[in-house]
Amino acid sequence: MKRLYTMATALLLALLAAQAARAQTDNWQRLVDEKRFAEVLALAEARPDSLDYAACYAAGQAAEGLLKYPRAYLYYMRCRATDTARTELLVALARTAGAIGRTDEAEQYLLKLRERDTAAFYANHQLARLYDNQGDTKRAMAYYNLLLQRDSANPVLMRSVADCAWRMGRKSLAIMTYMEAFRAEPEHALAAAALANRMLSMQMPEVALDVCDTALRYHPRHRLLRQNRGLALFSLDEYRAADTVYSTLLAEGDSSLLTRKYGGCARYYSGRFMDAIPLLEAAFDEDTTAVDVCLLLGSALGRTYDRRRAFALFDHAERLMQPAPALTDMLVRFRAETFERDGQKERADALYYQLWTERNRFDLLGRIWEHYNDTERAEKDEAYARRSRFITVLFATEYLARPKRDAKLMSFLNTQLNKFVSDMFFRQTKQLPTLAPDGKAGVCTEQELHNLMSRLQGVKP
To answer: CATH says 17-116 is which class?
Structure first.
């Protein structure tokens, strides 16, 4: 009897403990539902070794609610140690793994979800988003298309497919799909504004204007739509209408750069030069590299009251329109290299010489010199010989100024110069004609050559 009593007592205590644990877990979940996330985390931290699946899951939810994704992931991983079958857990693991950048793990969880149901919307959509964020646009588009096949009227999926098509360079498909999504959901203001912006970037202002006008019927005060509408009108040379749109936006407190810029430009092209100046001034102060604003501001000032500043602005605009020196040099060098590969050495040398004179590119001077070391050709081709004399003298002179010199190269240069002196002796002259790569004629004298040879022989490498 006593033994039976002891067993009954133990069973009762176990039931009471289970009920207490369940009540604790239910209380944690209630706190999560009430968004009292900090309290749940505090309770979890106070009992780190006594958390069951439900408690760990509630703690993970609370950590997510506070944007503490690494902690949430750890709590969900503890859940996984006790139960790997629950769909809700795989969803939570995939979500938090993606949030902390563990994309490979997120992908594996989502693929496991999809194995359970290949038609599952959540798994397919999250895989599409994951691949999209990783730059795997082709695979993302395949998943979006799969979802769209099952829900062909879903404008969100249409826009996702269109975004992928746009990034893949399939602009026609993207535009067609964007328009289809817009027709399905014309009241979506942000989507309409994004579509209008795409149309403007594609130089299709008529379509952009139609999109804005349609969407504004649902949201007549939407600022972004009205900004795009103003830009569409401006692009269509409807300057007075654009001026009206921008003036209204400015009166409502819109101080964005685009509104001030195109508002000022619209006023200028509408003939309101004086009224355009304050807006153009403000836009130019914010972006002094905007050539169009600089020119219109200068013109407006020149037409009204400050011609002196107008000229200064024109000078500034002219400087802005000059190409970047690095890009200019790259263009010249690439063109020269292409001429050289095409066998047009003289045209290549002229461009290399230009970079030498403008940018002090000694390496390119050396490239020219390498083209004129053929002594046999120099004996038969006077033009070649003149070019050889010029570039050899110049290269030797500049080489002597280099911090590091090669003894063999200096000896070779000395031999070349001595050959020129010998030519003068046999021709019974004290100077020989030269020809620079830019076509300028000159001479090299015997004295000049002797001085240069002495320097080559006297300088230590």
So the answer is: mainly alpha
